[in-house]
C-alpha cells in the first residue's frame, strides 16, 4: 500500500471515529430526553385509562382528541420444549413467526454444507466495515 493511500485511510478512520463518537453523544442525550417524555406519556395514559375504566367507556371524545381504550393481547411461553411439541403434534407451524434464526441456521448450514440451501431459502452476503479505536 502506498504512503498516500495509508494517509488517506488514516484520515478516513479518524473522521469516521469522530463522527461515530459525536453520534453516540447525541444518541445518549436524545435517549435520556426521550425516556423522560415517554415516562410522562405513560403517566398520562394511566390517568386516561383510569377515567375510561371508572366510566366504563371504550372511547371518550374531547375537543383536543379522542381517547380510545383498547385491549392488547400478547401470548408467551415459558416452556418452549412443550410448546414446540404442541406445534409439531398439531401441525400448527403458522403459530410461529416467519423468520429464520440466523445463528441456528448458520450452524445447520455448516453441518450440511455439501447439501446446499434448503428449498425456498436465499442467502444475501455483503462485505461491511468495522472500525475500532486504536488499542493503547
Detailed description of the structure:
This protein is mainly alpha-helical. It has helices spanning 3-55, 80-89, 102-111; strands at 59-61, 66-68. It has a two-stranded antiparallel sheet with strand order 1-2. The mean pLDDT is 92.
Distance between the termini: 24 Å
DSSP strand (E) fraction? under 5%
Q: What is the residue-averaged pLDDT?
A: 92
- Output the structural class: mainly alpha
Rg calc? 26 Å
* Main β-sheet description: 2 strands, antiparallel
Question: What oligomeric state is this?
Answer: single chain
Based on the model shown, name its key terms.
single chain, 136 residues, mainly alpha, 3 helices, flat
Structure described in brief:
This protein is mostly helical and 136 residues long. Helix content is 54%, strand content 4%. It has helices at 3-55, 80-89, 102-111; strands spanning 59-61, 66-68.
SSE blueprint and pairings:
Layout: H1 3-55, E1 59-61, E2 66-68, H2 80-89, H3 102-111
Amino acid at each position: 500500500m502506498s504512503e498516500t493511500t495509508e494517509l488517506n485511510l488514516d484520515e478516513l478512520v479518524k473522521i469516521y471515529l469522530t463522527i461515530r463518537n459525536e453520534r453516540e453523544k447525541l444518541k445518549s442525550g436524545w435517549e435520556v430526553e426521550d425516556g423522560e417524555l415517554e415516562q410522562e406519556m405513560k403517566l398520562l395514559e394511566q390517568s386516561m385509562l383510569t377515567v375510561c375504566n371508572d366510566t366504563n367507556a371504550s372511547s371518550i371524545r374531547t375537543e383536543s382528541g379522542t381517547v380510545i381504550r383498547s385491549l392488547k393481547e400478547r401470548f408467551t411461553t415459558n416452556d418452549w420444549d412443550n410448546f414446540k411439541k404442541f406445534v409439531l403434534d398439531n401441525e400448527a407451524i403458522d403459530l410461529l413467526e416467519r423468520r429464520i434464526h440466523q445463528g441456528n441456521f448458520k450452524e445447520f448450514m455448516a453441518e450440511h454444507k455439501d447439501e446446499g440451501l434448503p428449498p425456498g431459502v436465499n442467502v444475501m452476503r455483503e462485505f461491511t466495515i468495522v472500525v475500532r479505536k486504536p488499542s493503547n
